[in-house]
Amino acid sequence: MDQEVEEIARVLLHKTGDSSEFIQKAADRSLGIMVGSVTPTRAMAALMASGVNHRNPPVRKCAAEHLLTVMEQIGAEKLLSGTRDNTELLVQTLLKLAQDCNQDARFYGRKMLNVLMPHPKFDGYLKQSLPSHDLKRPESVFVIVILKTLLPKGDFEFFCPNTRSRSDTLAPAQPVVRRSSLRSVEAMEQLKELNKLLMAKDFQTRMEGVTLLVEHCRNNPQLVSANIIQIFDAFALRLQDSNKKVNQHALESAASIIPILKDGLHPVVVSMVTVVTDNLNSKNSGIYTAAVRVIMNVSLSLSDNALLLQAFASRVHFISGRAMQDITEHLSALVSSVYSRKPQAVERHTLPVLWYFLNNMIGNGVLPGRSGNVRTVVCKLVKSLYKEMGRSLEDHASSQPQHVIKSLRDLLDMELQ
């Protein structure tokens, strides 16, 4: 299996995120057997390549769990004795996992760091992966505080560059941690209850979880905003629930809470757009209408639409049909509001979408595949871009293939008539 481990690990990890619990468990069990049988370094490389950066939280959790097994098998001495680039990549990956939005992935990430901590070289690699200016970020300090709790007192000392005391690095965070712990017991219980309902097997209980989330947003929006990544980890699954009633209820609820949370949604905007846009191809009119409302509300509620522009642009390449056309229209509408403030963002994210369409359209605007005729939405996109960029739009097209340049000129000539 050594020669096949990377590809099979990729497929099995993908299946651990399947909606079927039976398939999840079977894939996880198969992956565990394979990882325990092949060369450990090959297994580690495959898990890092295909799992720890996966956008699906359950997949990241599964990859982290098996990666921990492999790392314990290899040992800290060998793990930290490889090439400098590989070792730095490993430590950076584990630090990222230790801050993951998924609770289980965070747990395994911190356990893996715990495996490396006794090695004398670890402090050096940790300092390189968390430069002094990053240590000022709350999430980085939080990880270090949590790491210390995993070990007996004195086992983990982190020396921050340009400071004389090893404990000084953590000193500013201590009062914050104490105050937070005193106030957060009730909040943590509420979040625990919410997560339990949202992840329930019974669809009616999941419906109750969605309703409870709406109540929390109305009664205590600060609680939701402060824990939005953790909450969305479970709520995102309901936005694509296999039960149509739950799916529609979650989308309608999302539309209602967006104007309440507004910029508090910023950390999960890209994930939300990714999940919601898949519903734009639903044949269920209620689900489609609710998904459209979510997209409209998020467009109206954010103070800075540049991130939303990036999210829409990235989705065009991964969706088809009505969803592609709807998102392209929203993208056209965003161009005018973003370009005046951040022209480079429009050029970086929206122009590649236009080149994609012009490079692949055939006939009178048909995009091969399941997307049908996209000429109307592409014309709108060209019109929006030309209105803001003028003739410089053609200058940006100069590096594109000749048929793309010609298609753009034809559309511009039609718009300018």
TrEMBL record:
Pfam families, per the entry: CLASP_N (PF12348)
GO MF term list: microtubule binding
One Gene Ontology cellular component: cytoplasmic microtubule
Residue ranges of the TM segments: none
One GO-annotated biological process of the protein: microtubule cytoskeleton organization
InterPro entries: ARM-like (IPR011989), ARM-type_fold (IPR016024), CLASP_N_dom (IPR024395), TOG (IPR034085)
Gene3D superfamilies: Leucine-rich Repeat Variant
All residue ranges annotated as the TOG domain in the record: 186-417
PANTHER family: CLASP, TOG ARRAY REGULATOR OF AXONEMAL MICROTUBULES PROTEIN 2
Protein's UniProt name: TOG domain-containing protein
Species for this entry: Gopherus evgoodei (Goodes thornscrub tortoise)
